[in-house]
């Protein structure tokens, strides 16, 4: 199988893999997130195994 480089910032490359960008607020582990941390509650959507398939695109 040949290797392929894709730039997922490009629409045409995302279409090749039927990819979609999904965005949610998050925190950076080990970084000072004071403004963000103080304003949001914990959310399971930050976890790697969270199922976001029902999110509106």
Rg: 16 Å
What's the pLDDT, averaged over the residues?
79
User: Largest sheet at a glance?
Assistant: none
Low-confidence stretches: none
Distance separating the two termini? 31 Å
> Helical region count?
2
Instruction: Please write the string of helix (H) and strand (E) elements.
Output: HH
Percent in helix: 10-25%
**What is the subunit organization of this protein?**
single chain
Structural class: mainly alpha
Beta-strand fraction estimate: under 5%
Mass-distribution shape: elongated
Total strands: 0
Structure description:
- The protein has 57 residues and is mainly alpha-helical.
- Helices cover 18% and strands 0% of the residues.
- The longest helix has 6 residues.
- The radius of gyration is 16 Å and the shape is elongated.
Task: Please name the defining characteristics of this protein.
57 residues; mainly alpha; 2 helices; 18% helix; elongated
Quick summary:
The protein is an all-alpha fold. It is 18% helix and 0% strand. The relative contact order is 0.15.
List the helices and strands and how they pair.
Elements: H1 11-16, H2 34-37
């Amino acid at each position: 199988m040949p290797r392929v480089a894709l730039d997922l910032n490009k629409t045409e490359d995302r279409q090749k893999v039927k990819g979609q960008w999904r965005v949610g607020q998050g925190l950076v582990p080990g970084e000072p997130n004071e403004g963000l941390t103080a304003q949001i509650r914990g959310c399971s959507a930050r976890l790697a195994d969270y199922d976001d398939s029902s999110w509106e695109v």
